[in-house]
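Data deposition worksheet. Section B asks for the primary sequence of the deposited chain exactly as it was used as input, without tags or linkers unless they were present during the calculation. Section C holds the resulting structure in token form. Section D is free text for depositor observations; keep each observation to a single sentence. Incomplete worksheets are returned to the depositor.
Section A, Depositor: J.P.
Section B:
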Amino acid sequence: MTDSSRAEFRIVGGHPALDLVNTVSPRIRGGAGQHDYLTTPAELLAWSRRIELIDLRDFSAVEGTWRPAPELAEKALRATLDIREATYDVLASRAGGAVVAPDGVKRSQGTAFERLMLRWSAAAARSMLIPAEDRTHGVADLVVGTSPAQLIPDRLVVAAVELVRTVEVRQLRACPIAEGGCGWLFLDRSRNGSRRWCAMEDCGTRVKIRKLGERRRATAVPS
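Section C:
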């Protein structure tokens, strides 16, 4: 996490679908005072380029489609946010350290799966198999995002479904809110599975500094 007033924030999820989930801070269902980093189509476009979901050619195609048709841009943003929340609903209950506000669960996990499936089905209908020659592995490429207007949400929902299908649950963790973290989800790929924070230089350091201050105040000798 970073200060919510900054334009950029850390990319720490280890997977595009988790990076999408982490565009809200702190990440807790139904929590107050959350900051959303994806509130406009322009923010969505810039973020997608930053995480390399799209390349420069895709960027130009999407921007060229959205600029004269802002209603298409808003539709893509709404689809993306729906994919984000459905992905969080599906994964949060399995992530070590995640906290879900008791009064904030408005959709069941089953409904979240259904929403992802519907978005994925629509994305699949806009995808193509392209034959590939002279290859040793595979004879075709799957091209997701043939419609520039919906390219970004299509690629994100395909990534989300791939993660839901294949994630090693033991690696799925949340930066611990109860200990001062931000709740962001990430894949712990450390050798001994000991990663606790979204980023040690961010939440981890901030919590350490706070605890150090608390210990110093507790042991201070009154004058």
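Section D:
The chain has one domain: 16-219.
The domain at 16-219 is CATH 1.10.3300.10 (Jann2411-like fold).
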